[in-house]
Here is the input.
Amino acid sequence: GILGCATIFTSISRISIAVFTIRGGQKLFERLALRVVRAPMRWWDTTPLGRVLNRFSFDTDNVDTTLVTKLFPAIMSLSWCAGAIGVMVG
Here is the structure.
């Protein structure tokens, strides 16, 4: 019944969040890498390699951790609202 539907919805939403987070991280990395590789030489002369590596790792970590912790509660709140509307209508 309702518990089974909730379990299925939660499982599907967690899996889809994981997939979208991985895709987002990949796109972010590709865009960062492309922009860094195409940077002018004067940028490479003035920017330490450690700073570039730190920026890559920080942005990737942000997508991997922060996005998931913020996105899942938002999806759950939307599902609660949809459930409440469904109960009121039905």
Notes: Helices lie at 2-37, 41-46, 49-89.
